[in-house]
């Protein structure tokens, strides 16, 4: 690695809207530089995760070092592939911190999309050189001239600077590599200074422990060096360093300006914080600024399907969050089960009185009972779960899929919620929470209106880019989601860019799907955090035969209470098994019932039971003898309340 002086190194990323061809371009760059074999028919080599290959998307940024000869010199080009989806822009900005320039890939047919705009500004704000690349020029409908003009209009980059390529056919890939060398500056680093390395990513390997991806800002690191983590102050001996080519390839040393991996006996997942600075023992340095921690936008409870698997799930989550640090574990909690509902959730085949006598049940129920851990009964009646924060819904789904595929953990995710806030007026509550403004993630903790000055909800600034013919429908959709229009710009004669301020809650579940379906898939969407706004929020209870079902308490905007309440009641009705007697399912705000479904009451069977009815019915109603299937509760929580 010493062959490469700093001026012969380029660190760059590829950024683009989803599906515009980043990974395909990365494959071609890898082939052209001989990093991978052309004949292997490699496809998306950098998409290593199973979920990435299945979904055809990149969720995790990957790094590869390429060697390229140009003008009689060999260059070391470090390519960092990044995800394109809105939920993963956190990975994008992390990747950018290790780069000096980017290739901004735009589809020659689709043109600039919402994520193109978002990604461009991430790079622009980081003061990186931007090389526009118009891809897919082989497509029948490709119009690179039009896209070039869009780039000039929206990003102020002269259209002559655009490189027109077909990543699929390998057309003009050479010009891309040459532009990387000519237009991106080498990193500004000092090899003679003591080591200063940024951990910009890390993964956990069962056998080798933590593998950190590092970018060296100063100095040199070699196998055998003693290094210190600025974050934990722990000292380690470096076992292995090397480059990613794209698989790990050990080298003797890594020098400032280079990017590679490092293994140093970090066993615990908490030891390799992304954003940490590593330095040599006895040569402390000023740590690099690190990264802002990712801000979760949606929260969801994660339950193991089998409660006895809870500890395994917890450790799988710990490992996966090391690799995907944008997931925050908000709460590792347990919900004490009170009402008959919850007990039935556990012992769903048993009617309530049996559950009370739970420990003494034998015979046909023995199987069910044995799923209760051998703890005191009160302990057994707890559902253990983790509440996790995600950057968005796709992020949540991908995390779930990765837990299953990479860690063999089967989980159930509940409907996502957003973090609301309340400004407290009650002195007692302020004392209890030790602050005036509290964030509410668990709806059960939503303070009563009489105890607050105001409620606040998170808002985002959304960008929609669409062909003009769908503008009317999209505006109506945005309005129905309580959004406020901020701006409207034509990016060419056929496309318009709309900016709206959205309550996050209104877009978090199904907005993207609705937008796609009413624009036949042509509109694109992206959003950025825009703080909080005052909102008329209310807490809504769901009652079964007059008993509040704790797990289904939700916070909704006053305007949406009826729709959401009705939806939950209907879904609950559909999820419960047939009942002999009538049960009321109600949605209520305070003491006011706003939606109601009546359910059950099988007439023929009822007739037969008429004689016994009166007493029995009363008893059953009183104790809420509802046999609730295990998945009913989950179905209701899982299904999207806004639909
Ligand atoms: N016709 C044509 N298709 C292309 C070209 N480049 C990529 N594609 C196709 O476009 C689709 C998306 O390409 P990817 O490389 O996966 O796109 P990406 O931007 O990496 O997508 P994400 O990883 O999901 O963000 C694939 O079906 C590619 O085969 C091209 O130059 N021409």
From TrEMBL:
PROSITE patterns: G_TR_1, G_TR_2. It catalyses: GTP + H2O = GDP + phosphate + H(+). Residues 7-188 form the Tr-type G domain. The keyword Protein biosynthesis applies. Keywords: GTP-binding, Hydrolase, Membrane, Mitochondrion, Mitochondrion inner membrane, Nucleotide-binding, Protein biosynthesis. The keyword Nucleotide-binding applies. It is found in: Mitochondrion inner membrane. Gene3D superfamilies: 3.30.70.240, Elongation factor 4, C-terminal domain, Elongation Factor G (Translational Gtpase), domain 3, P-loop containing nucleotide triphosphate hydrolases, Translation factors. Transmembrane segments: none annotated. GTP binds at residues 16-23, 81-85, 135-138. Pfam families: EFG_C, GTP_EFTU, GTP_EFTU_D2, LepA_C. It is a peripheral membrane protein. InterPro entries: EF-4 (IPR006297), EFG_III/V (IPR035647), EFG_V-like (IPR000640), EFTu-like_2 (IPR004161), G_TR_CS (IPR031157), LepA_C_sf (IPR038363), LepA_CTD (IPR013842), LepA_IV (IPR035654). HAMAP family: LepA (MF_00071). Promotes mitochondrial protein synthesis. May act as a fidelity factor of the translation reaction, by catalyzing a one-codon backward translocation of tRNAs on improperly translocated ribosomes. Binds to mitochondrial ribosomes in a GTP-dependent manner. Belongs to the GTP-binding elongation factor family. LepA subfamily. This is Translation factor Guf1, mitochondrial. It comes from Apodemus speciosus (Large Japanese field mouse).
């Amino acid at each position: 690695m010493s062959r490469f002086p700093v001026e012969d190194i380029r660190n760059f990323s590829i950024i683009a809207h989803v599906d515009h061809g980043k990974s395909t371009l990365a494959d071609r760059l890898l082939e052209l530089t001989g990093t991978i074999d052309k004949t292997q028919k490699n496809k998306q080599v950098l998409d290593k995760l199973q979920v990435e290959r299945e979904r055809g998307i990149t969720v995790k940024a990957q790094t590869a070092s390429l060697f390229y000869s140009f003008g009689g010199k060999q260059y070391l080009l470090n390519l960092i592939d990044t995800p394109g989806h809105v939920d993963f822009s956190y990975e994008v900005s992390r990747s950018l911190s290790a780069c000096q320039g980017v290739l901004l890939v735009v589809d020659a047919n689709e043109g600039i999309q919402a994520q193109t705009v978002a990604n461009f500004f991430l790079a622009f704000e980081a003061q990186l050189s931007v090389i526009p690349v118009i891809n897919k020029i082989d497509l029948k409908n490709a119009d690179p001239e039009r896209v070039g003009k869009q780039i000039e209009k929206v990003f102020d980059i002269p259209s002559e600077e655009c490189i027109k390529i077909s990543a699929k056919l390998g057309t003009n890939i050479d010009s891309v590599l040459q532009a990387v060398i000519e237009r991106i500056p080498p990193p500004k680093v000092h090899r003679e200074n003591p080591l200063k390395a940024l951990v910009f990513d890390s993964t956990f390997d069962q056998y080798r422990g933590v593998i950190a991806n590092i970018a060296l800002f100063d100095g040199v690191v070699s196998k055998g060096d003693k290094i210190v983590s600025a974050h934990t102050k722990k000292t380690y001996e470096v076992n292995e360093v090397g480059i990613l080519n794209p698989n790990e390839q050990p080298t003797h040393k890594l020098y400032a300006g280079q990017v590679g991996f490092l293994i140093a006996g970090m066993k615990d997942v908490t030891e390799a914080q992304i954003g940490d600075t590593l330095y040599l023992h006895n040569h402390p340095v000023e740590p690099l600024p690190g990264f802002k921690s990712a801000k979760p936008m949606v929260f969801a409870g994660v339950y193991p399907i089998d409660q006895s698997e809870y500890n395994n799930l917890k450790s799988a989550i710990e490992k996966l969050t090391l690799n995907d640090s944008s997931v925050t574990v908000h709460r590792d909690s347990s919900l004490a089960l009170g009402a008959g509902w919850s007990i039935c959730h556990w012992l769903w085949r048993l009617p309530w009185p049996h559950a009370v006598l739970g420990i003494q049940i034998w015979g046909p129920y023995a199987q069910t009972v044995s799923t209760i851990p051998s703890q005191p009964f009160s302990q057994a009646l707890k559902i253990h779960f983790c509440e996790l924060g995600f950057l968005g819904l796709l992020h949540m789904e991908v995390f779930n899929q990765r837990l299953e595929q990479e860690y063999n953990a089967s989980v159930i995710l509940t409907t996502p919620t957003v973090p609301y806030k309340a400004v407290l007026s009650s002195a007692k509550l302020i004392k209890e929470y030790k602050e005036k403004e509290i964030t509410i993630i668990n709806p059960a903790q939503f303070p009563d209106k009489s105890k607050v000055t105001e409620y606040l909800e998170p808002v985002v600034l959304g960008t929609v880019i669409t062909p003009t013919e769908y503008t009317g429908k999209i505006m109506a959709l945005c309005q129905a989601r309580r959004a406020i229009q901020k701006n409207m710009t034509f990016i060419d004669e056929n496309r318009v860019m709309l900016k709206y301020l959205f309550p996050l809650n209104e877009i978090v579940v199904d907005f993207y799907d609705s937008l796609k379906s009413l624009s036949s898939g042509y509109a694109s969407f992206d959003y950025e955090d825009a703080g909080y706004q005052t909102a008329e929020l209310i807490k809504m209870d769901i009652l079964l035969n007059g008993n509040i079902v704790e797990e289904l308490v939700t916070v909704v905007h006053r305007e949406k209470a009826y729709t959401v309440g009705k939806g939950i009641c209907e879904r609950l009705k559909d999820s419960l098994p047939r009942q002999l007697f009538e049960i009321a399912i109600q949605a209520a705000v305070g003491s006011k019932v706003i939606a109601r479904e009546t359910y059950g009451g099988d007439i023929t069977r009822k007739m037969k039971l008429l004689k016994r009815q009166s007493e029995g019915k009363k008893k059953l109603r009183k104790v809420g003898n509802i046999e609730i299937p295990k998945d009913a509760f989950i179905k209701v929580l899982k299904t999207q309340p806004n639909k």
